[in-house]
Design goal:
The chain is an alpha/beta fold. The protein has one domain (3-145): 3-Layer(aba) Sandwich (Rossmann fold). Helix content is 48%, strand content 16%. Strands 2-1-3-4-5 form a 5-stranded parallel beta sheet, with helices on both faces. Helix 5 (120-125) links the parallel strand 4 and strand 5. The longest helix is centred in the middle third of the chain and has 21 residues, at 55-75.
Length: 146
């Protein structure tokens, strides 16, 4: 049976693809699941519930629908990889880390050294802090193959 890994966090780089390709190259028994990475689609998902003229309510509706997906997928995961980029603040990724911690679902953080301080609490609850996707793939190898 495959290990299920939830990929959370920034959507502006190819980190997800690099991890998936690394796991595939090592023939690891992993199924990856993820949040929606199409920013516009994610922002617009609540529009199905009715158009809003106030951006707060549009974001609120979309956040709730996205949360339904996120909570469901994290709940089905064996563990998560949570990526924090340095260009944008990923409040959603920090929320996902907290959700994992609350559910007892282990997670690994992936971020540069320069944002250690703002992520100290998030990293404190993580099983590992990685700086590269290659490090993540090595951890995935160890976890799935020993």
């Amino acid at each position: 049976m495959d290990t299920v890994v939830y990929l959370s966090g920034e959507i502006h780089t190819d980190w997800r693809e690099r991890i998936k390709k690394g796991a595939e190259a090592c023939d690891l028994p992993i199924t990856f699941i993820s949040a929606v990475t199409d920013h516009e689609a994610s922002d617009a998902v609540g529009d199905v519930l009715g158009q809003e003229t106030n951006s707060f309510w549009r974001d609120h509706k979309s956040a709730k629908v996205n949360s339904l997906r996120t909570k469901t997928l994290i709940g089905k995961s064996d563990f998560a990889i949570i990526r924090f980029g340095d260009q944008y603040k990923q409040w959603n990724a920090a929320f996902d880390a907290g959700f994992c911690a609350a559910l007892g679902i282990p997670y690994i953080t992936l971020h540069d050294e320069k944002i250690i301080h703002p992520l100290k609490e998030v990293d404190a609850a993580a099983m590992a802090w990685s700086q590269t996707t290659d490090q993540v793939v090595e951890i995935l190898k160890y976890v799935t193959q020993g």
